[in-house]
Hints:
The chain contains eleven helices and 13 strands. The chain has helices spanning 37-91, 100-108, 128-135, 174-219, 233-283, 291-318, 332-349, 369-386, 421-425, 432-437, 448-458; strands at residues 112-117, 120-121, 140-146, 149-157, 163-169, 328-331, 353-357, 364-367, 392-399, 408-414, 462-467, 473-479, 487-488. The strands form three sheets. Strands 2-1-5-4-3 form a five-stranded antiparallel sheet, with helices on both faces. It has a five-stranded mixed sheet with strand order 7-9-10-12-11. Helix 6 (291-318) crosses helix 11 (448-458), helix 7 (332-349) runs parallel beside helix 8 and helix 8 packs antiparallel against helix 11 (448-458). The chain is rod-shaped, with a radius of gyration of 50 Å.
Amino acid sequence: MADRPAGPPGADQPTGALPTVGAGTARPRRFRPGRTLTARAVLVTCAVALVSVLGTALVAVPLAVRNAQREAQDTLAAQAQMTAEVLRLRLNRGRPTDDERLLRLLADQDVEAYLIWNGRADRAGLPPQVVERVAAGRDVSVRRRVDGRPALVEGRALKDGNGVVLTRTRVTGLWRKVLTNIWGPLLVGLAAGVVAGWLLARRLARPIRQAATAAARLSAGDRAVRVPVEPPDEVAELAYALNGLAGALATSERRQREFLLSVSHELRTPLTAIRGYAEALADGVLGAGETARTGRTVLAEAERLDRLVSDLLALARLEAADFPIDPIAVDLVPLVGAAAGTWSTRCAAAGLAFRVEAPDGPVPVYTDPGRIRQVVDGLLENALRVVPPGAPVVLAVRSAGTDPAAGGVVEVRDGGPGLTDDDLAVAFERGALHQRYRGIRKVGSGLGLALAAGLVRRLGGTITAGHAPEGGAVFTVLLPPGPHRTRTAS
C-alpha cells in the first residue's frame, strides 16, 4: 500500500464562473390550496389582522358605550340644574303658571320633565323612591325605569317639598351600532393582511424555490449549480449549505474519477505483463529454459493483481455494517514480533536496514489482532515500495502513556523520500499520493494508506502521518486500552 499525497489545498475547488439557479428548471409543482407557503402566510396575516380588529373592538366598544352614557347623564344633569334654577326664581313669586314654554323646550331635546309640588308628582310614571327623595330635599342622579323603559334620571330639590325631575330614555343599541361600524376597518385590515401576506410569502418562497431547483439539478448530476446568497440569515445559511454540498459533490466525484483512473492503470500493468507472457507461451517463442522464469514472473504479477483486488474489496467493505471485527485483549509486543520475523527477511532481500523497537514489558490493547497485523503489513509494504536501498525501516511499539493500561502505539518509520506538510493533510485519502507522485517517484496504487486508516478507525483507534527522525515518513497508530486481562497474540 503506497500512498503519498494529493494536490495542494484549494485544488479541489471548482474554477470559473458558475451559473446560479433560476426559476423554471425544477420539476412541476401541483398547486394545493392551503399547503403552499404563500397561502399560509396570507392566512396568518389575515388572522392577525382579524384578531387585532376584534381585540380593539372588545376593548374600545365598552369604553365608547360608557363614555356615551356618561356624557348623556352629565348633559341631563346640567339641564336639570338649569331648570331648577329657573323654577326657583318663579317659586319666589308663587306657583308658576307659564312653564309650558320651558317644558316644550325640554321635550324638543327628548327630555321629559316632572314637577313635584308638595311631595307629589304632577303625573304618574316616576319611581316612588325618586319622588320621595326629591320631596325630602335631596338631589337625585340615577338610572331607573320610567314608564317601563330604562332611563337616565336627574332630580333637583326645591323648597317646601317641591322639585323637578328630568328623564331621558337611555341610549340603547350602542354595541350594535359600534359593531356595525367595525366592518369597514375589518375589511381594510383583511385586505392589508392579504397584500402583506402575499408579499411576504413571495419574498420567503423565492429562495426556497431556488434551493429546491438547485437540489433537483444536483440530483440530476449538475455540479456547477450555485444558489445566490442573500438575506435573511436563515436563507443565507441554506444557500451556503447547498453551495457547499454542490462543491463537495464535485470534489468527491473528481477524486473518484482520478482514483478510478489510477486504479485502472495499476490493474492494467500486471494484466499487460500476464497477457504478454501468455501470448509468448501460446506462440511458442519462448525457449524451454525460459519457461520457469516466465512462470515466476506471471505468478508475481498475478499476486500483485490479487493484492490490488483484495485492497479494493476491503475498502468497499470497510463502511459496511457487517464488516467483521473481532476485538480481544491483545499484547502488542508479541504481535509486532511476529510481523518483524516476516518483514526482516523481505527488507534484507531489498537491501533495507530493518529494526524493531519494543519495550521489555507487555503493551495491552483491546483490538482485533488480525486487522492490526493487516495494518502493520500494509504500512511496511508501503515503506518497502518507496524506501531506497540502504535506508532504514523501523517497526516500533510502545505504551501510549506511563500507565501500561493506557493503550498502545505502533509506529512504522522509514528513511525514504518522506512527505511534505501538504502531503500529510491528504496522506490517507484514496489515490491522493498516487495521483500526486505518479511518474515522479515510486508510488503504489494509492489504496494502502486509505485501507489502513479505515481499519484503524473501525477498531476505535487513530492513525496519523508525520516526519520521521530517520528522514522519511512516520505512521503512528494509537489503539485503545484493553478492558480485560491481556492475552498473548502471535
